[in-house]
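input
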Amino acid sequence: MPNIKSAIKRVRTTESNAKENASIKTAYKTAIKNFKAAVEASKKEEATELFKVATKAVEHAANKNVIKANTASRKKSSLAKELNTIK
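output
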């Protein structure tokens, strides 16, 4: 445990940021999981809607620097490929 006042504040800040990052990461992973479930079930309309939700969640994570921009782009591309398999 730090003794210096500013270091104590940084620990608090880091913990709150880690919680926020974890919630964003969980949200985008859940959105992707829901989309993949719809693709597996071959539900075209539902998959299209969930694709929009998943890409929005991935973009949000990239904007908040939880994941890198190239990672977000790669994930969106792979989701689009999966969506095109059921069309």
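quick obs: The chain has a mean pLDDT of 96.
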